[in-house]
Amino acid sequence: MSFSPSSKSSISLDGVAALVDVMSRLRTPKTGCPWDLEQDHKSLARYTLEEAYEVVEAIEKNETNHLREELGDLLLQIVFHAQISNENQGFTFDEIARAEAEKMIERHPHVFGDRDAATAQDVLRNWEADKAKKRAAEASAEEREASVLEGVSTALPAMTRSLKLQQRAARVGFDWKDTALVFDKVDEELAELKAEIAKGNAETIEEELGDVFFVLVNVAKHLKVDPEHALRRTNEKFERRFQYIEKSLKQAGRKIQETSLDEMEKLWLAAKKEEKKL
Fold first, then answer.
1. For labelling, which of 87, 105, 221, 228 has a CA lying 20 to 30 Å from the CA of 23?
2. What would be the CATH architecture of the domain defined by 147-225?
3. Which of 4-8, 44-48, 61-65, 100-104 has the lowest mean pLDDT?
């Protein structure tokens, strides 16, 4: 790649070096980009999260070219954060990459060391054991008791965090052994929600609804289904079918605001039939 961010001469750089150099140029006072110069870690946080979600969307839609683009956008966010840190005598992009490489070596002793791990489950079991030891060591250094639930980020989507919390608890035996028992709990939580709805207490309604969501995540865990992915698929299905309703009404010269629920329901069922034909 030929690129000349800091001089008139052409400089041959590999992809990563070119991106790092571009970001350095964008953050150069007076000659850089005014918007880029105004950013800091906090202001970039939402963009970093958005780019991560767009990567997931490209994966779910199996859009290879789009995935490459979105991964590039996510990489840009990492380079951006590294540049800001470097300007303040903090970590650099190279340090991020090197530390991650070291972490991967440490987490894969069955590849880089002499530990045995014949299956993916063996790898996960060893990894969890090592993480538990690390959490215990950190807690001991801070003179406190370690928790099984430590390290589950509060920044995760609520449903994903719920799954991780429950997976952690299940590893030490805090879980139902039989999926049927989980469904009994679903019925129990739904009954409690209905009781609070009857009382009309908004605060307890929210709490009980949260309990329903939480136990449904447990159902997903027992069925080995990612609840976040399942709900994303349902969201897409709803969007697809609702847009079928809109399109059908538009073709008939009608406005959706003037259409009855019964009519829309019929079109919804028609959309379902169309999907089954595909």
1. 105
2. Orthogonal Bundle (1.10)
3. 4-8
With 90 as the cut, is the pLDDT of residue 258 above it? yes
Structure tokens at 217: 């995540």
Measured CA angle at 242 (ends 236, 245), to 5 deg: 150
pTM of the model: 0.73
* Residues facing 3 on adjacent strands: 11
The mean pLDDT of the chain is 92
Q: Is residue 9 pLDDT above 60, yes or no? A: no
Same fold, 2-106 and 147-225: yes
What's the pLDDT score for residue 13?
Answer: 60
The Cα–Cα gap between 264 and 246 comes to 9
Radius of gyration over every alpha carbon of the chain, rounded to an integer in angstroms: 25
Q: Is 260 helix (H, G, I), strand (E, B) or coil?
A: coil
Structural domain spans, the chain: 2-106, 110-146, 147-225, 229-277
Q: Which helix (H) or strand (E) holds 18?
A: helix 15-26
Domain 2-106 falls under CATH 1.10.287.1080: yes
Comparing C-alpha atoms, which of 32, 24, 34 is closest to residue 82?
Answer: 24
**Res 41: pLDDT:** 98
